[in-house]
Design a protein that fits this description.
mainly alpha, two-stranded antiparallel sheet, single chain
Length: about 190
């Protein structure tokens, strides 16, 4: 799994202010409206894929590509709304971006035992520990986003270490989502690196 959000050398202060005051209108509403319905379809495909993995040990490839595209679309929107890029997020599960790239390798075989273990006991060994750590990481990410907003406004530059931490947080969330969605058997590390 790989996530890259390219850090720009200079950010547009005008785009920052436009996103801050009107981003809900021209980014959030259209994307989230469509993502709601596409997400429902993704949940249906995930349910079907669970059974496919249980009986065949394989995630249907077209379903997998759809889910990765959905994760990438969500990430493009989050990167734009979170001011990690000035680029407007492209629509759709097959959308592309020059600044944001999500890659998840297709697994040729998935473990049925891990699938059942994750379904029955994932709350204990996966959701609780990762949820606990991500809760505090997301609080800190919110603080850094606030500080970075001011840095971009006054200097036109997003602090590099803030950017790295925020991208790492998105990386951790994508690994969490991929494992929870049965896209991989690799248990996600407790890090954003």
């Amino acid at each position: 799994m790989a996530l890259t959000i390219q850090r720009q050398d200079q950010f547009s202060r005008g785009a920052l202010l436009l996103r801050t005051f009107f981003g809900w209108l021209y980014i959030s509403i259209p994307h989230l409206f469509l993502l709601l319905f596409v997400g429902i379809w993704g949940a249906i495909l995930s349910f079907i894929s669970w059974w496919a993995v249980l009986f065949t040990g394989k995630y249907p490839k077209s379903f997998f590509e759809f889910q990765v595209g959905l994760i990438a679309w969500n990430t493009r929107v989050a990167a734009s709304v979170g001011n990690l890029t000035d680029e407007y997020p492209s629509f759709g599960v097959s959308g592309t971006s020059g600044a944001v790239r999500v890659e998840i390798d297709y697994p040729e075989k998935l473990s049925r035992g891990t699938l059942i273990l994750r379904t029955l006991f994932g709350w204990l060994y996966f959701y609780i520990p990762h949820g606990f750590c991500l809760f505090f990481r997301l609080i800190w990410a919110g603080i850094l986003s606030f500080l970075a907003w001011w840095a971009v406004l006054f200097t036109g530059s997003f602090p590099e270490n803030f950017h790295s931490f925020l991208v790492g947080t998105h990386r951790w969330l994508i690994r969490f989502t991929a494992y929870a969605g049965f896209l991989t058997d690799t248990y996600p590390p407790f890090t954003g690196k």
